[in-house]
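Q: Focus on the shape:
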Amino acid sequence: MNTLHSLISSLFLFSCFLPLLLSFSPPQTHLPMQCLDDQRSPLLQLQHHLYYAPHFTFSSKFDLWDVNTDCCSWEGVTCDAYGHVIGIDLSYKNLSGSFHSIFYLHHLQHLNLAGNNFNTTLFSYRFDKLQNLTHLNLSSSCFHGQIRVEISHLTRLVSLDLSNQDDCYWRNGYYYNSATLKLEKPNFKTFIKNLKFLTELYLDGVDISTQSTKWCETTSLVLPNLHVLSLSSCGLKGPLCSSLSRLSFLSKLILDGNPISYLPPNFLVNSSRLVSLSLSGCNLNGQFPTGILLLPQIQSIHISSNDQLKGQLPEFPVNNALLSLSLFETNFSGKLPQSIGNLKFLTNLKLSSCNFFGPIPSSIANLSYLVNLDLRSNKLSGSIHSSLFTLQSLKTLILGENQLVGKIDEFPNASSSSIQELYIGNNYLTGPIPKSILQLPRLEGLYIGENSFSSMKLDMFVQLKNLKGLHLSNVSLLTESDNKSLTFPQLESLSLRSCNLTEFPEFIKRQDKLKYLDLSNNKISGAIPNQV
């Protein structure tokens, strides 16, 4: 009895101190599982059947992986805790060959073969064997022909990218207009009907032209969880349906290059999550919904090359999120609002070839992140504020083909400027060229012709050491034919049209990089030198 009592007491004490003992036990080490043999074997087959083929020409066998190491440590391979391969990323490796062995990796969730040179169809690949796949990216890899229906059986897909196959050919210096992916059988509606969990769909450049105009309603109904819809240059017909506005998670919509033609009233103006909208080259007409420009999270709007699309810029609130606004070659009109200076984060503003008029708002000088400003071919008037030249991030300043007048004042800190291209030609500007412009250290393109600047000499521009393009058409130009120091080491394009030249400029003989030369409408006589 005493023995039993002692045993019970000991067990009671042990149970009381067990949690304390466990708290002082050494931490367990979770070592990564090694790749399983049935996972390693398909990867070895894959390495055997792939090869490097830049420009579609065999270069060498694919030898990225060291067969003497654990395959879970191989570049581009991801395993789970049990040693199953769940991810393969071999993007942009210039690979060709076949990848049939991948379809034995039944645990695979992520497959990325983008940016390679396969140059084949998808006909022989059994994607339906990868039922755990959530992310599939085959973009820009030179696939062509009908998209396999088996891809539509991957019901767990969250992200699908089959876009821009022609980019592969451009990248390798070829262009095949007919080499593209297409959706005919199955058609677009049949293809997406089982992919109800998709949040990202990229089919840019895939031929869906046989699909009826109901593609829009089908997308809205079948894919309610879409965050990204990118279908540029797919041959889709319009008009756009208002039901796209009901995709409550939609943040990115890209439909460039489709003959959509019509936007429904108030299209997307209540899409509070929309970050990016791109509808360039869609033959749009009518009035663009101004409310889209004021959406709380919108960062990028590209609706250029729609010359029948009307609209005006609104008054922008403080700290609007816009990063990029591209409206060039549209029928937008009106004055540029002073509140454009509230777009504090703007990097690109491209409003060329529209019908804007009035002065350039001085508030643009507040846009400290602005990299590209293009306002050419409008009806803008008034002077050019020299403060524009002081924007430290600005690389491209294009104000040509307007009605700008007067003198450009000197501006400070020219030596720290980032401006690479300056186009102020075809205006009514007067006075001398500011010395500050001639001190821009990174300037590569200078287009100042067709103005009323006072007389200038070519040697004024010699200090612009990086100058590749110089266009001085229709200016009063003084040249010194015997000036041996007059040379531009990087110059590729030169226009001295209508500059009252009477003899061939000698310095041109020393321009060994020159590719374009315009000396038309001058009074030059005699033979063209052999050195040119």
